[in-house]
Amino acid sequence: MDTSQITAPSRGVSPVLEDGTPSSGVIHVNFRHAAGFTVIGNHLAQHRGLSLTAIGLAAHIQSLPAGARIGIKRLAERFPESEARIAAALRELAAHGYLHRSRVRLADGRIVTRTFSYNQPGTTAHPVTTTPRTHAAAREPASPPASSPLPSSPPPAAPDSAPVPNPAPRPQPAPALGPDPTARSTPPPAPLPRPQELTPELQHAATALLANLRRRTPRLILSENDIRALAPGVATWLERDARPDTIHHALTTDLPAPLKHPAGLLRHRITTLLPPPLPGSQDIAALARPDVTVAPLQNCDRCDRAFRSHHPGRCRDCRSDLHTAA
Q1: Cα distance between residue 127 and residue 312, in whole Å
Q2: DSSP secondary-structure letter at 228?
Q3: Residue 20 confidence (pLDDT)
Q4: How many whole angstroms separate alpha carbon 48 and alpha carbon 209?
Q5: In 140-178, which positions are buried (b, 16+ CB within 10 angstroms) versus exposed (e)?
Q6: Angle, CA of 193, 199 and 203, to the nearest 5°
Q7: d(CA 76, CA 82)
Q8: Predicted structure pTM score
Q9: pLDDT attached to residue 230
Q10: Is the backbone peptide bond immediately before 290 cis, with ω within 30 degrees of 0?
Q11: CA dist., res. 113 & res. 102, Å (int)
Q12: Residue 135's pLDDT is what?
């Protein structure tokens, strides 16, 4: 019973050595950074709900300068992880508040995606962009506080310059109340021509011509409101002795593909291709002699051609064909 146990330790092994170094586990060898570093909180580095890929990706994003692109394809080119794994890590960061993406419409009408990276989720409702800190501002004072022990090796001396505070965020310019003088202004469209006198006959002929456009050109389908709005312009063509087939040819030739706004195209052609009055026509003669009454336009019952007559019926060509057949 008095035999000593030489294999048993005389006392328990302390987890910390005499110089303060732990006997097991990780041993930190730290060196104070003077420039080119990023502060990462333990809430991110030791997060229980994030994967290791998400934690590393968040640290990489926080180390990037403002304005750097962090798209999935760009990150997949930078790291060996696949696009699916990077996309899953970005979703993890967004779910835990470290990342937020929103689509914003700019003043010029473009829609862009803005990505906000939070080093402390839930601290601010509106992110504030600051400029990078200078070396003098990033360093701590060379002399440690009186209550802290002196370090074993003196830190690098700071330059003889006062710390530069972080500048306040630049205010965004207020939107201009008036039109931008540098923007290219589109001239207003020319007004639709109108006849000197929109008689019921002219109105009926112009409406029938516009409604019949879809029979030969199915793409020119007009609503009732469009036909009612364009009829005075076509009536002006008929008043200037333009034949219906001439008007049809001018309105339906060389249509663009695809045709998105048929009414807008017809309005442009009716306005810009309007022919001048024929010299010596009945309209000009009537203007010179106000006592002369110009016969109104009628639509032929057979060929739908417009002709001037005080009574509806058939045009001269259809009447001559009828006599020849008889």
Answers
A1: 77
A2: H
A3: 66
A4: 76
A5: eeeeeeeeeeeeeeeeeeeeeeeeeeeeeeeeeeeeeee
A6: 65
A7: 6
A8: 0.35
A9: 92
A10: no
A11: 6
A12: 42
Residues 309/201, Cβ–Cβ less than 8 Å: no
**Cα dist. 314→282, 299, 310, 326 in Å?**
20, 8, 12, 16
The pLDDT, as a whole number, for residue 80 is 92
Q: What is the mean pLDDT of each run of 10 residues along the chain (326 residues)?
A: 60 60 80 86 90 92 88 90 92 90 86 86 58 44 44 47 54 53 62 86 90 87 90 90 88 86 89 82 47 73 83 82 61
Alpha-carbon distance of 228 to 207, in angstroms, equals 7
pLDDT of residue 120: 86
Q: How many CB atoms lie within 10 A of CB 209?
A: 24
Q: Letter for the amino acid at 291? A: D
pLDDT of residue 55: 93
Residue with tokens 């006599």: 323
Report the distance separating Cα 119 and Cα 101, nearest Å: 15
Q: Which residues contact 81 (CB under 8 A, 6 or more apart)?
A: 53, 75, 89
**What residue has token string 């029979």?**
215
Give the amino acid at 159.
Answer: P
**Do 232 and 191 form a contact (C-beta atoms < 8 A)?**
no
Helix (H) or strand (E) holding 172: none
Q: How many CA atoms lie within 13 A of 146 on its CB side?
A: 0
Nearest to 274 by CA among 235, 245, 302: 235
Residue identified by tokens 């052609």 is 269
3-state secondary structure of 169: coil
Structure-token match 């006997």, residue found: 23
Q: CA 139 → CA 156, 160, 257, distances in Å?
A: 10, 12, 65
Report the alpha-carbon angle 97-30-166, nearest 5: 55
